[in-house]
Amino acid sequence: xxxxxxxxxxxxxxxxxxxxxxxxxxxxxxxxxxxxxxxxxxxxxxxxxxxxxxxxxxxxxxxxxxxxxxxxxxxxxxxxxxxxxxxxxxxxxxxxxxxxxxxxxxxxxxxxxxxxxxxxxxxxxxxxxxxxxxxxxxxxxxxxxxxxxxxxxxxxxxxxxxxxxxxx
Length: 168
Prior knowledge:
Blueprint: H1 2-49, H2 53-79, H3 90-105, H4 110-132, H5 138-167
Helix pairs in contact: 1-2, 1-3, 1-4, 2-5, 3-4, 4-5
């Protein structure tokens, strides 16, 4: 009888631990989905405001990248049996408004737009690093780590281009 009770307690402890891990994983994934959606919209808006065609193309590409990343993360959430996040955050709407405002104040300066893009990427990089340090299941960790590397590369590219635009 004691053995049966121990097995039952062990089962419930594992079930609670599994639900907690799924809840934590779900929260992390939904946060990253929001960040990707924010980046998608922010890069799209920035590409519409920037003057140089090569930068328009680059920022549009980053917007598409973030859309792809959000889709990959949404698929992972669906496999957890939950409806994924589909919208961007309220903070991103404020950030996109800041890009528009900054653009108006600086007559659409490419440097000012790149500064705002880098600021948005600082947030994305930090969120991805935090998620990468978490306790995610291996198959999810692999996706998050790969996306983290790409987000870091985009951040570094934008920072370099921002510095070049400042020197011009």
